[in-house]
């Protein structure tokens, strides 16, 4: 295994994460500036003076934005795991119920001096897994029944090492931070769109009565106010798009880091590559909401795999990185047969028979 290349890969992804996280406070300041523009727009004597006044209002607006962010964080911190269990349909398992799963995770935890995370299973034939928990002491690893049945011991250990690395690195916490920041930043834009619709409806009903008065009040200051409002709306739209881009880029970056961490734990890049190939052959859990889809081991999708809206890097890029930096060997896509009449949705609680493949070619 190319240890130097692996360490360099981890370091590069680490500083990329720091840069991405630094972008969120900057976007919060932009949102505060946009609010300032809306506040001063009506009374600003000119466009330039409005810009200066809006900048001076930022210290007054920032505490309000931070308070909203803190409340959102508190709600996410308390309800995160409960919401995930409810949305995914996962149920906790004991050592007696899933000894193979427990033994594999326990061995990995002992090798790094980590506490045992909570283990859960989703009774679905799809092959996937995700890690959750906002700290190492509250960490949880959830796997599907299909994953347990499709992977051999080496491959299962590699996947569990990937998820355990997410817990070690605090990736679930980072995901919540990114989601809250993105939500707070995009909220003003959504409110403005809804307010604009209501204002448009009110203008339509009262347009004939207000036309004469508006024409008599028009002056140079009105043009500056309109420009300030338009600039505020443009900033809100821009920050919304950038917040989403940062959130998804951070998610993709942490997947690369978890792959590297899994190789560090297992010293077996070949097993992780083989596991990713098998998972990709039947990774879909379409009934899960997008918030949970973003946490899965593999969820690149067919249309967003190379998009800035993708939560995961494309599979071929992940495997290429494992080959390049960890010295892994890729045997190519898994050869599977497609049944004549594949089911439209996953079966509710039954694993696929061992002799008849259900999955489709990725």
From TrEMBL:
InterPro entries xref list: HtpX_protease, Peptidase_M48
Keyword annotations of the record: Cell membrane, Hydrolase, Membrane, Metal-binding, Metalloprotease, Protease, Stress response, Transmembrane, Transmembrane helix, Zinc
Gene Ontology biological process terms from the UniProt entry: proteolysis
Stretches the record annotates as Disordered: 330-362
Note on cofactor: Binds 1 zinc ion per subunit.
Keyword Ribosomal protein set for record: no
TM spans (from-to): 57-79, 172-189, 225-246
Domain Peptidase M48, first and last residues per copy: 97-324
Superkingdom, natural source: Bacteria
Cofactors: Zn(2+)
Any one Gene Ontology molecular-function term assigned to this protein's record: metal ion binding
UniProt biased composition (Pro residues): 340-355
Recorded family membership: Belongs to the peptidase M48 family.
Protein name in the entry: Heat shock protein. Metallo peptidase. MEROPS family M48B
Organism: Belnapia rosea
């Amino acid at each position: 295994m190319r240890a130097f290349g692996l360490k360099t890969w981890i370091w590069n992804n680490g500083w990329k994460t720091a840069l991405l996280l630094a972008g969120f406070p900057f976007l919060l300041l932009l949102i505060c500036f946009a609010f300032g523009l809306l506040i001063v727009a009506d009374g600003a004597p000119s466009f330039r003076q409005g810009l200066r006044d809006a900048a001076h209002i930022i210290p007054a607006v920032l505490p309000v934005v931070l308070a909203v962010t803190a409340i959102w964080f508190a709600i996410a911190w308390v309800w995160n795991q409960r919401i995930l269990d409810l949305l995914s349909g996962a149920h906790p398992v004991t050592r007696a119920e899933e000894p193979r799963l427990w033994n594999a995770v326990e061995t990995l935890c002992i090798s790094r001096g980590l506490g045992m995370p909570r283990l859960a299973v989703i009774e679905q034939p799809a092959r996937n897994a995700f890690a959750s928990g906002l700290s190492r002491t509250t960490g949880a690893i959830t796997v599907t029944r299909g994953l347990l049945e499709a992977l051999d011991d080496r491959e299962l250990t590699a996947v569990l090492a990937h998820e355990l690395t997410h817990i070690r690195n605090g990736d679930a916490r980072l995901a919540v931070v990114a989601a809250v920041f993105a939500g707070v930043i995009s909220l003003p834009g959504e409110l403005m769109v809804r307010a604009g619709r209501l204002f448009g409806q009110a203008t339509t009903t009262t347009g004939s009565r207000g036309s004469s008065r508006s024409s008599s009040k028009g002056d140079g200051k009105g043009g500056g106010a309109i420009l300030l409002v338009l600039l505020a709306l443009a900033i809100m739209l821009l920050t919304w798009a950038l917040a989403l881009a940062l959130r998804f880029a951070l998610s993709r970056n942490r997947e690369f880091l978890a792959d590297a961490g899994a190789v560090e734990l297992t010293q077996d890049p070949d097993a992780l590559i083989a596991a990713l190939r098998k998972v990709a052959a039947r990774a879909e859990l379409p009934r899960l909401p997008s918030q949970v889809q973003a946490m899965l081991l593999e969820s690149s999708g067919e249309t967003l795999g190379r998009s800035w809206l993708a939560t995961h890097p494309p599979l071929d890029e992940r495997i290429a990185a494992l080959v390049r930096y960890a010295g892994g060997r890729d045997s190519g896509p898994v050869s599977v047969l497609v049944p004549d009449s594949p089911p439209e949705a996953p079966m509710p609680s039954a694993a696929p028979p061992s002799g008849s493949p259900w999955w489709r070619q990725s």
